[in-house]
Design brief:
about 240 residues, mainly alpha, two-stranded antiparallel sheet, two-stranded antiparallel ribbon, globular
């Protein structure tokens, strides 16, 4: 899944309005941000195998340290604890941890059975939505539209940058998603390099556009609302 992970990042702004969109996106994409580095280091393996699924030619041969259920739970705990220590925002920490776990759930829906439960455990799982291109596009498209709708109902632009930046970000994601349909990437190294660079560029973009937007004052917990017992801190 690609834009589906961005969808939950957008939607999570409602649950943790003080948390930067970039942090929410980073949590939702965390294991995919780490995975390219593991591929480049030879710790995990992917190969290009056209026909592996109808939707993508990628065959994820081994990625237990980033995408197994056990390790996703470990990554989630680490991310949540680190965010709580840095910001003091308890709700944001729980939401961020849940977003990390959501990545495995969404991958479980889309991937063929290639997700392990833990490193060293051979049993693999996956519901295989990727076996159908139309079904994948419909499910991801609906999820993305819903997540974006929640973000739009949660925030409003402070200025033109907040409006144009958001819609440019959305357009880029949609065009990148559409452009990858049916494309065969050149190889594992290129996949990992593009994923590593592109992932962090998108996070910077999300941080910037969110800085130019604000939480709507009608929400029960506006961006400036204090957490009991914790001094107010800027979004992070």
């Amino acid at each position: 899944m690609f834009i589906g992970h961005f969808a939950v990042g957008f939607a999570a702004k409602r649950a943790a309005p003080r948390t930067s969109l970039a942090t929410l996106m980073a949590a939702a994409q965390l294991v995919d941000l780490v995975w390219p580095a593991f591929v480049l280091l030879g710790v995990e393996r992917v190969r290009v195998a056209p026909g592996n699924t109808a939707f993508t030619p990628l065959d994820f041969e081994s990625y237990p340290w980033t995408h197994s259920l056990l390790m996703v739970l470990v990554w989630a705990a680490a991310f949540g604890i680190a965010y709580r220590a840095r910001t003091g925002y308890v709700r944001g920490a729980w939401v961020a941890a849940a977003l990390v776990v959501s990545h495995w759930v969404l991958d479980w829906v889309t991937h063929r059975p290639d997700l392990q439960f833990a490193p060293g455990v051979d049993a693999r799982t996956g519901l295989g939505l990727w076996s159908s291109v139309p079904a994948t596009v419909i499910v991801e498209g609906a999820l993305f539209a819903a997540g974006l709708g929640v973000y739009l109902s949660t925030t409003r632009a402070r200025n033109r940058k907040g409006s144009i930046g958001l819609w440019a970000f959305v357009a880029f994601l949609v065009l990148a998603y559409a452009g990858n349909l049916g494309q065969v990437p050149p190889g594992p190294t290129a996949i990992a390099a593009v994923g590593l660079l592109g992932g962090f560029v998108l996070l910077v973009w999300a941080w910037w556009l969110d800085r130019n937007r604000e939480v709507r004052p009608s929400l029960p917990e506006p961006a400036s609302a204090p957490v009991p017992g914790v001094p107010p801190r800027p979004p992070a």
